[in-house]
Amino acid sequence: MIHFECDYACGAHPAVMKALVETNSEQHCGYSEDERCDIARQMIRDMCHCPDAAVHFVVGGTQANLLVIEAGLRSFEGVLCADTGHINVHETGAVEATGHKVLPLPSVDGKIRADQVRQAVMLHREDASFEHIVRPAMVYVSHPTEIGTLYTKDELTALSDTCHELGLRLFVDGARLGYGLAADESVDLPFLAKVCDAFYIGGTKCGLLFGEAIVITEPSLQDCFRYHMKQRGAMLAKGRLLGVQFEAMFRDNLYVEASRKANRQAQQIKQAFVDKGYPLFCDTIANQVFIVLPNDVVAALQQKYVITYWGKVDDAHAAVRLVTSVCTRDEDVEALLKDITAL
């Protein structure tokens, strides 16, 4: 079987594996307080043009999400997000398990708008029973979103301005950030560092064996963050493994360039389906493709390819997702393109 169901089915980019092998015999102190992590932190600060940013390495995206949200909220506060947001639908209540309520908003193309945030906050503040209701104090968005769409620079700027005017924090989930950076260069790391209180740079889905880099620009969020990490089991004893991997992926802009190749592969797949007359479930320009297919076509593809069933459209059709990654092989894409043409 050839896997197109996610962007973490493979191991890691060859440059990452090479770096891990070459540094394997090195000895370092633990818990990401080593020289390799320091190098990677500085590379990230330099690329973000944010010398005062705190950078913390964790193993996975759910860890990153619950840590930032927990650290940024008081006990009676909650986090606003799209109803399709990862923390709302795909993390088994991880955020709620920290004691904070997820407050979903209706989304269009997986995104929420600044005016929705303002309305939600003002509804709370103007309610006579506001002290009996969880207070919105943070906004969570994903870039790219769970359905592969991207926030524009203007949309993120509007969210940031609204959050800061109303006293909320803005947090961007960057599990697939490499693909977003490669697809829209106007939303780059310096911009994110400017408009966000915190965001994370995804590694697990973007060429690393595992690992995410949390970037915190808001000073009040930086205080005591490692206490939260330790309490939540997010301090990796062999933390150097995270630094080594990020160091390798951030040399020579590899993080973005490798993601750019995956985007091109995904767009080839999307175009092949479109050329055959199959409609898009939603249009995307990064590494996720969403197509509406007849049920028999889905079954035929699943004989050779692992793809994600996204949902029933009607009795005869389903929406499916296909995903490329930093490690997707050109020959696998070519095989799929040939089979799409033959449908």
Q: How would the blueprint of this fold be written?
A:
Blueprint: E1 2-3, H1 14-22, H2 35-48, E2 54-58, H3 61-72, E3 77-82, H4 86-89, E4 102-105, H5 114-125, E5 135-142, H6 153-166, E6 169-173, H7 177-183, H8 189-195, E7 198-202, E8 212-216, H9 219-222, H10 225-231, H11 240-249, H12 254-275, E9 280-282, E10 288-294, H13 295-301, E11 305-306, E12 308-314, E13 317-323, H14 330-341
Parallel strand pairs: 1-11, 3-4, 3-5, 5-6, 6-7
Antiparallel strand pairs: 2-8, 7-8, 9-10, 10-13, 12-13
The biggest beta sheet is recorded as:
7 strands, mixed
Indicate the mean pLDDT.
Answer: 97
Strand content: 15-25%
Number of strands: 13
Q: What is the approximate shape?
A: globular
Q: Indicate the low-confidence ranges by residue numbers.
A: none
Helix content: 40-55%
Question: How do the SSEs run, as a string of H and E?
Answer: EHHEHEHEHEHEHHEEHHHHEEHEEEH
Mind telling me the C-alpha Rg? Answer: 20 Å
Count of DSSP helices?
Answer: 14
Q: Based on helices, strands and strand pairing, what is the structural class?
A: alpha/beta
Strand arrangement in the largest pleated sheet: 2-8-7-6-5-3-4
Distance between the termini: 18 Å
